[in-house]
């Protein structure tokens, strides 16, 4: 075809994907004489659509009457080897993740035949997800996937022996709690925070630390309590025996007055203890 027949179709023939803004740039005409425009992609004319989250992409033809005539025919090549589509606003599912170049071809016969070619690069990212980052040494957690436009399901609290889980945060400094109710439209990151758990003594430990006696003085208290219990049961008898021995020593021959006084005092104290006076 001659260049006269390949008049540029005004930029009313455009494509958009999902939430992308309407494109309004004219696409130069590519003549069939320069090669196969379906396969010979002019890199300098490729418009980058960036990352696309999800695998089902909605394409749309947009007509702008201010810049030219509306297309009469349209054809799409989705870049993945699938059959081309002649729908104006096709909905296409990509089976594999990766980068694709979509080709759009439109024509009209106003004032003769004209055509337009559009080339669009996009990367199919798949389902959006939450990537959970845990501290070194903690169990690594799997990504939480969600359908685009829906909120992810919060996973169960992770278990790390010797640590307490404090929650998920949206930042590595643990200042902003992660909101699991916000719908996802791309991949995001959540940070898991832990702290060392308190050490709980083993009840079978031979020398446990008393919670009420952190200084470990409970053994001294037990020893004191043991002496008191012994004195309560056998104090009077012990004092009586001791007093009797002292008096016997005095009677045998060691007749120092102090010995007699001590012996009598022990006997008196033994009697008072026995009677419960002291």
Could you walk me through the main structural features you see in this protein, from its secondary elements to its overall organization?
This protein has 278 residues and is an alpha/beta fold. It folds into three domains: 7-126, Immunoglobulins (Immunoglobulin-like), CATH 2.60.40; 128-202, Listeria-Bacteroides repeat domain (Immunoglobulin-like, Sandwich); 234-278. It is built from two helices and twelve strands; from the N terminus they run ββββββββββββαα. It has helices at residues 218-252, 257-275; strands at 7-8, 14-17, 46-53, 56-62, 73-77, 91-93, 98-108, 114-126, 129-133, 144-145, 163-169, 188-196. Strands 1, 3, 5, 7 and 8 form a five-stranded mixed β-sheet that branches. It has a four-stranded mixed β-sheet with strand order 10-9-12-11, with no helix packed on it. It has a three-stranded antiparallel β-sheet with strand order 2-4-6, with no helix packed on it. Helix 1 crosses helix 2 (257-275). It starts with 6 loop residues before the first strand and ends with a helix. The model is unreliable at 1-33 (pLDDT under 50).
């Amino acid at each position: 075809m001659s260049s006269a027949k390949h008049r540029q179709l005004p930029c009313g023939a455009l494509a958009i994907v999902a939430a992308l803004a309407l494109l309004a740039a004219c696409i130069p005409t590519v003549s069939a004489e320069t090669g196969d425009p379906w396969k010979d992609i002019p890199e300098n004319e490729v418009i980058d659509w960036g990352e696309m989250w999800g695998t089902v992409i909605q394409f749309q033809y947009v007509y702008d009457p201010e810049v030219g005539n509306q297309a009469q025919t349209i054809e799409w090549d989705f870049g993945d080897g699938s059959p081309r589509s002649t729908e104006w606003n096709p909905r296409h599912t990509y089976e594999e993740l990766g980068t694709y170049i979509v080709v759009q071809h439109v024509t009209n016969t106003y004032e003769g035949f004209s055509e337009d070619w559009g080339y669009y690069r996009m990367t199919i990212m798949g389902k959006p997800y939450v990537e959970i980052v845990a501290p070194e040494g903690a169990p690594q957690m799997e990504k939480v996937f969600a359908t685009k436009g829906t909120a992810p399901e919060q996973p169960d609290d992770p278990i790390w022996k010797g640590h307490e889980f404090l929650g998920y945060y949206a930042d590595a400094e643990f200042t902003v709690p992660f909101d699991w109710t916000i719908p996802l439209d791309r991949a995001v990151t959540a940070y898991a925070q832990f702290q060392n758990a308190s050490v709980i003594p083993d009840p079978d430990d031979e020398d446990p630390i008393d919670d009420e006696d952190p200084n470990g003085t409970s053994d001294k208290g037990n020893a004191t309590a043991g002496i008191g219990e012994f004195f309560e049961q056998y104090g009077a008898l012990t004092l009586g025996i001791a007093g009797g021995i002292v008096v016997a020593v005095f009677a045998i021959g060691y007749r120092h007055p102090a010995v007699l006084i001590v012996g009598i005092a022990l006997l008196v104290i033994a009697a008072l203890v026995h009677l419960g006076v002291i």
